[in-house]
Amino acid sequence: MLQKNTAEEKNDFTQGGMSGSILRLALPMIMAQLVNVLYNIVDRIYLGHMEGDGRLALTGVGVAFPLITIINAFANLCGSGGAPLCSIERGRGNLKKAEEIMGNSLVLLLLLGVFLTAVGYLFRTPLLWLFGASSQTITYADGYLQIYLAGNIFVMLGLGMNPFIQSQGFAKTGMLTVVIGAVLNLFLDPIFIYGFGWGVKGAACATVLSQMVSAVWVLAFLCGRKAILKLRLPLLRPRIKLMGQILSLGLSGFTQSVTNSIVQILCNASLQFYGGDLYVGAMTVIYSIREMVQMPLQGFTQGAQPVLGYNYGAKQYGRVREGIRFVTVISILFAFVSWLVLMLFPGQMIHLFNGEKELLEVGIISLRIHFVLFVFMAFQYAGQNIFVSLGKARQAVFFSLFRKVILGVPLILLLPRMWNLGIYGVLAAEPVTNIVGGLACYLTMLWIVGTELRTGEKLEEWTGKTGKGGQ
């Protein structure tokens, strides 16, 4: 029997407690997600406090952000699709196939990066008008996006390949990917925005340069000696079947990001219609705060994916059930604490981005409506990421679409017209989708996954008894 190398033994997730294995990967992932928020949050904080046109600059970047999120979703399409497949194949002992999956994910990222950059330059201005820009904010939105697109390929590589570091159990290295870029961005922002007087273009330059450094770090590690799964030139040959599997599983995270962006676009356009730039600016702040509280929850549930997927591939069904229970409890606790802080200190949170009296008044009311049922997002994230970690792409994709497209889009369009709710109708759509979508996703996951795991446990037990009887 071949001996496992030290890294493989250390990252064998069938050993030790499930909660410990999950936390060992999830805590650095949470830190990475929190630091990752700095990329865009810091930009908005600096821009929002610019003298004179700070609120308009903040609003302009807010209008551009849904388009950036859609671009980033294509990076997550490859990363969140390929990395869980790698974990499952590694759990089965198929290291070569795992490396082929990683190599094909890299090829997909390069192709998509070139395509999206070209499309972005061709259609960015008309799209920004469509997404809720006004004559006062279009200059800021277009200026930011123009620079961002120039470094899009580095953003794609950094975001899309980092999950392959984390899926191998190198959570701290994956965290450093984000920390290095975010700290650099934090340092460059004030120099470019204020020191050089570049404003929104300076914020975009800082982000692009930081992401470029992160991308180099990721690729250097995956080509180096420490990685269990390495990027090898012969395994970069495109395989249509593998690419299809990567895209299929990655559709869940992709759909979630894209549908979030679609809802944000519709929300901005509706707020522009019913309330103008002030409400679009307030929603930009609210979405920024949402990132701050949502990213750790996302980081925890995604951090559990390699552990759940590895044990599922190794047919350790009892451990998978234990992991699901742990993920659920921690997700609910975190969402509750976040909700409590937001309900108690809305003004302080908004003041981080802009201190204008008008924005504070509008923002406090809007924030409390938007987050009133945030606790139920724990069920959405837990259910959807458990589907992904076990390779169940169709269910994960459906519930992404269900919450945002099937529920969210009609509610944003209809609620403002009902009972003359106007602005409040636009804001009320989010809590309704949280409770209905979150519970539907999680309860369905319990039914489908629970049934499969119980069946698998009985089959393994029966096979074991049969094997003993035949000896």
Give the helices and strands, then pairings.
Blueprint (H helix, E strand, L loop, with lengths): L5 H5 L7 H31 L5 H39 L2 H36 L7 H13 L1 H15 L4 H25 L4 H23 L17 H35 L2 H27 L1 H9 L3 H28 L1 H6 L5 H14 L6 H13 L3 H22 L8 H47 L2
What does this entry look like structurally?
The chain is mainly alpha-helical. 82% of the residues lie in helices and 0% in strands. The chain contains 17 helices and no strands.
Q: Work out the helicity level.
A: over 70%
End-to-end Cα distance, whole Å, is: 22 Å
- What is the string of SSEs from the N terminus onward? HHHHHHHHHHHHHHHHH
**What are the segments in which pLDDT stays under 50 over at least 5 consecutive residues?**
none
**What overall geometry do the principal axes of the alpha carbons give?**
globular
The overall average pLDDT, rounded, is: 81
Strand content: under 5%
What profile does the largest beta sheet have?
none
Short description:
The protein is mainly alpha-helical and 471 residues long. It has 17 helices and no strands.
Core attributes:
mainly alpha, globular
